[in-house]
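Much of the work behind modern protein science is quiet bookkeeping, done one molecule at a time. Below is the pair of lines this work produces for a single protein:

***
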Amino acid sequence: AMKRPAAAREPQSSKPGKALKYLGSPLLDPPKDTEAESVFKVENMIREARRQLQKPEGPIPSVCVLDPDGDVVKELRRRGDAVQNAHWPCYHSELWQSKIGEHLVGFVPFIVGAPYAVLVADELFACGCELVVHLTSAGEIVPHPQGPSAGQSFFVMVDRALRDEGASVHWQPPSMWSEARDEIFERLPPAAFEGLKKKVHRGSSWTTDAPFRETQAAIDRAKKLGILCVEMESAALMAFAKATGNAIVSFAQVTNSMAVQEGDFEKGDGGGSHDAIELIHATAAAW
């Protein structure tokens, strides 16, 4: 196996005769001013994208789904039930829309990782979206009696997420957890998900930037914290939502035990899209 090189520390001073001092990660030193106005604004990027991509002004759905694995969009397109939104002014992604029950819902596929998820969510709200539904796959941490270790998958409605990523510190001061806004649970109570084929359990998640660095020590620490699952976006999305007052709900479909055995990552029919569409329908109807 290839040996990973030790991380080098960059000198902080090049002045002759002065001792070099390592000040730490630029994520934390100096601290971010989360109240300061950004020079680069999402509205300005949208303006330029509309011009360059020739995207006319127009509406997008009020409820939009971040679909990191792309399974829901794939299934809706297979059925002939999804069309591209002609007004979506994003350089990096596509916005599809489909009627889910009585609701027109938008879907942005393949939004993987915290920085990309926040960038797209910011663009969605700037274009008129009112609720972003983050629907991601996750690995099991604390075994659940109805989880992957028992041959089943389920959804975690994430109420807080361990901030083991870099994007959230640009929106909220450093802390251990990002927490969902209270409005999410007031408008989406447990009764909203009664009767769904796949169960919805409220709980905490671990958001990581490095899925292939989920070491045993990190997993054991997450278990001690009572964390149900690990994924790649929730902490940053929650920090962004808290800072901006926007509405984001994170659902993690717990599908795997990190592939330590063969036959993992099974979501169900259509890559789990049937269960996901049922969940999205219940969410849009309750909202």
